[in-house]
């Protein structure tokens, strides 16, 4: 058989040219098999092929056997994967294609404040909430709290001094002209006071941090030292006992050497006559 590379290349399939998988868990091969079953003209052969496909689907997902109406679920998935084009005799009613189409749910993108992101969305929500309040001291106090928080956020991101007029203009713009502090003789907190609050909060959080880990480490270290000390005492007692035994053995050996006439030069202690006889 002559291999023709040009024809082989023309028959290659790419994922961009293929249809989307209806149920990707079953894979591309099973999807092609179902597409071939749809093309079969003989109805009996088509029914037989559909049952074989059901058996293959059951072996691919054995965990579905514990589900009630296991076969019913597989037949519904078969019709769904055939895009409701398969015409076979099913032991269960054919599902309605209008009810089984999963239309994509459009999620609205959040309309955040893109111009002054360093303030955050919570500030914008607080400004809208302050606008809805009735005129009075509580509303004025809330507006001043919002303005001071805006100044703090501005300083956290820019790390520089800022005039109160800049914050008032931003507040006027974010409130759509409904909150105007430029007409009032109001002053916000100074930079030192705002940044000092941040530093004190950090220090308090650091001091209030639980020291359980350090205490556990110290306790374990102390227990380790106590164990080492007890081990050293035991070793010293053992060494003292062994040294006493060695001293006793040495004393015993010396006494034996002195009393034994056959050790060393013991012949010198014999009388002269006995020495002569032995020679």
Describe this entry's structure for a reader:
This protein has eleven helices and no strands. With 279 residues, it is mainly alpha-helical. The radius of gyration is 48 Å and the shape is elongated.
Helix and strand arrangement:
Elements: H1 5-10, H2 27-39, H3 43-60, H4 70-81, H5 97-100, H6 121-132, H7 137-158, H8 164-174, H9 191-207, H10 212-259, H11 272-278
Inertia-based shape: elongated
Count of helical stretches:
11
Q: Helix-strand pattern, N to C? A: HHHHHHHHHHH
Share of helical residues: 55-70%
Strand content: under 5%
Overall average pLDDT: 75
- Radius of gyration, in angstroms, nearest whole number: 48 Å
Q: Biggest sheet: strands, sense, closure? A: none
First-to-last CA distance: 117 Å
Query: How many β strands by DSSP?
Result: 0
In terms of per-residue confidence, which ranges show pLDDT below 50 for 5 or more consecutive residues?
252-279
Given helix and strand content, the structural type is: mainly alpha
Question: What's this entry about, in short?
Answer:
By secondary structure, the chain is mostly helical. The protein contains 11 helices and no strands.
Tags for this entry?
279 residues, mainly alpha, disordered C terminus
């Amino acid at each position: 058989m002559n291999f023709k590379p040009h024809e082989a290349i023309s028959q290659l399939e790419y994922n961009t040219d293929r249809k989307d998988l209806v149920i990707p868990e079953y894979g591309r091969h099973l999807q092609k098999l179902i597409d071939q079953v749809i093309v079969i003209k003989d109805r009996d052969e088509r029914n037989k092929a559909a049952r074989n496909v059901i058996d293959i689907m059951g072996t691919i997902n054995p965990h579905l056997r514990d589900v009630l109406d296991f076969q019913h679920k597989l037949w519904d998935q078969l019709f769904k994967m055939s895009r409701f084009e398969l015409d076979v005799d099913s032991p269960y009613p054919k599902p309605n294609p209008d009810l089984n189409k999963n239309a994509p749910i459009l999620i609205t993108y959040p309309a955040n404040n893109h111009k002054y992101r360093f303030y955050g969305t919570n500030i914008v929500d607080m400004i809208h909430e302050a606008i809805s309040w009735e005129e009075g001291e509580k509303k004025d106090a809330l507006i001043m709290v919002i303005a001071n928080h805006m100044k703090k956020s501005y300083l956290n991101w820019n790390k520089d001094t800022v005039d109160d007029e800049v914050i008032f203009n931003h507040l006027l713009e974010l409130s759509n002209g409904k909150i105007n502090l430029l007409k009032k003789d109001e002053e916000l907190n100074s930079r030192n006071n705002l940044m000092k609050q941040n530093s004190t909060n950090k220090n308090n959080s650091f001091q209030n941090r639980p020291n359980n880990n350090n205490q556990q480490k110290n306790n374990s270290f102390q227990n380790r030292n106590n164990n080492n000390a007890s081990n050293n005492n035991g070793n010293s007692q053992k060494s003292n006992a062994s040294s006493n035994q060695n001293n006793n053995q040495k004393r015993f050996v010396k006494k034996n050497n002195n009393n034994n006439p056959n050790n060393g030069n013991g012949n010198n202690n014999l009388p002269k006559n006995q020495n002569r006889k032995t020679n």
